[in-house]
């Protein structure tokens, strides 16, 4: 980072916690404003951090001129805010998903590619020690060709989770349920580790929370990757507890298993382990441990000539996968012909 940067956060909901913690922890970043349409959330966050609070991001931008804005709003607000900021030449760090629909994601991609500002999307689990080690090992070719993967996301939610933030359970505001709001990180890691997805099959449905939400709480996917590898993914929020996310990758000469830490089992019987880092936070444990690592890296790369490596175009890959599943399942506004990746 060439010098001190000023930052602002738009959206003072739950996930803003880890962004605000990272801004406070990283030397050379000064928080200058927060923004939220909810007066109580805005006032509480502004008072806690000793900065002005704004109800509108355009007013905030005009009065405080931050170098970087972190967008932590509900999904359906991502594109409008991101496009406004990029067109104003302001750097953007955007929480996942890139947008709640593919059309809105395309708007962000177009704005990013015409802007001189940088934008990154928070797929922070790519920065996990386990994911980085797995990616490096698979890319090295030591284990031979990757044959495929199997992954699970089996968590639980309560009706109060949705009632507290009604946007989470609606197609119009969230763009989906389990797949876009929880399992998207796992979908992103599977395609990042195994390869770009060229075909999607699967089904999504509301198995348990149909009296509370209109979006899906359970899904199963079959993914075909570039080169022919095959992966399966299962997720549900109807589990009675939070089970660890699992990702198992099978290659010609060994396998990888991520269950908290990473276990590498080679064909000759050797076993290696890579522990995951620990990152104390007031945020939810299932958000992982790597938000601060990603945020540090984003700020360090602001003067790079190349776009940030987790760009809107890159982040659209996982959105396209889950949108195909919605289309195949005939649910939500995505009940149209699948895109056939």
From TrEMBL:
Residues 132-256 form the GFO/IDH/MocA-like oxidoreductase domain. It comes from the Bacteria. InterPro entries: Gfo/Idh/MocA-like_OxRdtase_N, Gfo/Idh/MocA_Oxidoreductase, GFO_IDH_MocA-like_dom, NAD(P)-bd_dom_sf. Residues 7-121 form the Gfo/Idh/MocA-like oxidoreductase N-terminal domain. PANTHER family: D-GLUCOSIDE 3-DEHYDROGENASE, UDP-N-ACETYL-2-AMINO-2-DEOXY-D-GLUCURONATE OXIDASE. This is Gfo/Idh/MocA family oxidoreductase.
